Amino acid sequence: MADTLTITDNRTGKSYEIDVTDETVRGLDLRQIKVEEDDFGLMVYDPGYTNTASCRSAITYIDGEAGVLQHRGYPIEELCEKSSYLEVAYLLVFGELPTGPQLERWVYDVTHHTFVHEDMKAFYRGFRHDAHPMGILLAGVGAMSTFYPDGKQIEDEEERYMAAIRLIAKMPTLAAFSYRHSLGLPYVYPDNDLGYAANFLAMMRRMTEIKYAPDERLAKALDVLFILHADHEQNCSTAAVRAVGSSQVDPYSAVAAGVAALYGPLHGGANEAVLRMLRRIEKVENVPDFLEGVKSREEKLMGFGHRVYKNYDPRARIIKKHVDEVLALTGDNPLLDIATELEKRALEDEYFTSRRLYPNVDYYSGLIYEALGIPSEMFTVIFAIPRTSGWIAQWMEMHGDSEQRIARPRQIYTGERDRTYVDVADREGPEKITGPPARRPVRARRGA
Ligand code: CMC
């Protein structure tokens, strides 16, 4: 039997046969369904794209029901155990695990592009001392398009490769500079003798030491976190990179859109929100009250729930194992007790189980970052570092996909039409507006 779907339009009694491929129908095939010949045709209404495939992709496979995550066919558990982050980045971008010489070349290229243009520092200095490092990073990545204008040649394979290398290589430098700026500390240049994660830690931490080498076990834990955050198919920020990239803008600008999307508390900002939540709960005894607040919808249990995983997020499972290892090196954190109790009680509670709400990747990652001495404003910034390889891999895949067109959704228009224009003097409304302006200028509020 052919893979088709027969749709009967009860408005007209007409039937239509529509192809089904990969358990999917094409949205445009529905446009033939009309009542009148000059109708626009049937559309699909799907806010938040909850059931809309926007592309074909061979990068990341997720089975949300079973809690499975694979990159290019390799289970995330195995990659975390056996690979380095840069190896996984190569896998995402090129589709295969690198051979020894390929890996050597890739690591060399990334390592030798970690420096940013000196003018970038002048650009960073323009930010207020208390600017959020994610806001600074967002601007820094956007500014890269002006430092590397050749990135606009998106048809040039060499330029695409250079953009991938530069973005992956410079993201930790920009991220660490953002952090140092927010503390008023001098920027620390990359150290090419260190690995990717260790170099990032050194750029964050180094003070007067001639050479700074972070504890290898901590650098390894961070590298695993990088692997876990490298890609996650069509999440909000990746969808943003693809949508913005579909206009054929340069990859730096497209990735800046990804950074902006990641900034939001429902996406990459969640791990920062988890720590704030745990601090607000304050002690284990307050957990039941907090959960009541969540159930009465006064609160949200940050780090729980996922659009795709309706089971334990496999990334959360791996992170959980590493929390204990890291805390054994850095010392206990009382917030872990609160997090453990909160998870235990939530997983026993019908409110959460019936909605299939389980811990996601961000539930425990903040605790590791905190143990590494990284302040919470940096958590989302650190998420952006490894996700860059996913963004660039997805951007490259989109670029090579002949079916992709500029992203341009439809809408259902709900506003008025064909109104008669009224001159300002004749419009109805109060004679005078009293009271203060709705918003005072930000500068005045902060007293600067
Ligand atoms: N706490 C309490 N209730 C929740 C939560 C939560 N964290 N998440 C979902 N729910 C409830 C929600 O109120 C709804 O209940 P009802 O059907 O009674 O109205 C039901 O569960 C379904 O939720 P939804 O909002 O329709 O789910 P969604 O797929 O639109 O949202 C989510 C997914 C991740 C935005 C959401 O679960 C959430 O806000 N979680 C907290 C933020 C968070 O941890 N985000 C990190 C996501 S993982 C990292 C990443 O990929 O960026």
Topology at a glance:
Blueprint: E1 4-9, E2 14-19, E3 60-63, E4 68-71, E5 74-75, H1 76-82, H2 85-94, H3 100-111, H4 118-125, H5 133-147, H6 157-183, H7 196-205, H8 216-228, H9 236-245, H10 251-262, H11 270-281, H12 287-295, H13 314-330, H14 334-347, H15 350-354, H16 361-371, H17 379-399, H18 442-446
Helix pairs in contact: 2-8, 2-17, 3-6, 5-6, 5-10, 6-7, 6-17, 7-8, 8-13, 8-16, 9-10, 9-17, 10-17, 11-16, 13-16
This protein binds carboxymethyl coenzyme *A (CMC).
Key terms for this structure?
Citrate Synthase, domain 1, Cytochrome p450-Terp, domain 2, 448 residues, mainly alpha, 5% strand, 3 domains, globular, 18 helices, binds carboxymethyl coenzyme *A, 3-stranded antiparallel β-sheet, 49% helix
How would you characterize the overall build of this protein?
This protein has 448 residues and is mostly helical. The protein folds into 3 domains: 4-44, no CATH class; 71-267, Citrate Synthase, domain 1; 270-371, Cytochrome P450-Terp, domain 2 (Cytochrome p450-Terp, domain 2, Orthogonal Bundle), CATH 1.10.230.10. Helices cover 49% and strands 5% of the residues. The chain contains 18 helices and 5 strands. The chain has helices spanning 76-82, 85-94, 100-111, 118-125, 133-147, 157-183, 196-205, 216-228, 236-245, 251-262, 270-281, 287-295, 314-330, 334-347, 350-354, 361-371, 379-399, 442-446; strands spanning 4-9, 14-19, 60-63, 68-71, 74-75. The strands form 2 sheets. A 3-stranded antiparallel beta sheet has the order 3-4-5. Strand 4 and strand 5 (74-75) form a beta hairpin. Helix 3 crosses helix 6 (157-183) and helix 9 crosses helix 17 (379-399). The protein is globular, with a radius of gyration of 25 Å. The relative contact order is 0.12. Residues 444-448 have low confidence and may be disordered.
